[in-house]
Amino acid sequence: MPNTDEYKKLIGKWNVVESNFLPFDHISFCKGLDLGTIFYFDKFGVLKVYESIDEKDYCNDKQSYWIKDDDLVIFEWDIAWSYEILILTSDTLKVKIDKIPFYLEEELFVGDGNDFNDDPRVKFIREVGIIVTMKKIENGG
Predict the structure, then answer these.
(1) Does the structural domain 5-96+131-139 have CATH classification 3.20.20.30?
(2) Burial zone of 110 (CB within 10 Å; 0-12 exposed, 13-18 middle, 19+ buried)
(3) What angle do helix axes 120-127 and 102-110 make, rounded to 10 degrees?
C-alpha cells in the first residue's frame, strides 16, 4: 500500500456508528448489516467485514481496497465498485454508496409484487445514497 496520509488514516478497524439506511449491504456476501458492523482495512490492502465486534468470521470474500481520488475502491475477484469518501480523518470515516441492497432487490422482485422503481426506499437510495459513518476503534500497522 502507498505510504500516504490517506492510507495511514484508513488502516485499522472501524465501527459503524451511524447510517441513514438500515440495514445496508456490503457487496457481495455481507447482507443486512447494521450499526456495530466492523470494517477492517489491513496494511496489505485487504478488507475484512465483520457483522459485529464479537464476530470471529468475516462475511466478505477475498477483497482488496485502494483509494483513487475521492473513492474507496473495493475489488473482489472479477468485480470492482466504490464508496465515495465523504470524510476521512484519523478517527472518522464517512462513505456513500448508491447500490440498492440485495435483500431489498429480492424482496421487491420476488416478494409482494411492488413496482421496484416506485418503492420509497429505492427512491431514497437513488436520490440520497446510503451514507455510513464509522469511528476508528483500533489502528492498523
Answers:
(1) no
(2) exposed
(3) 140
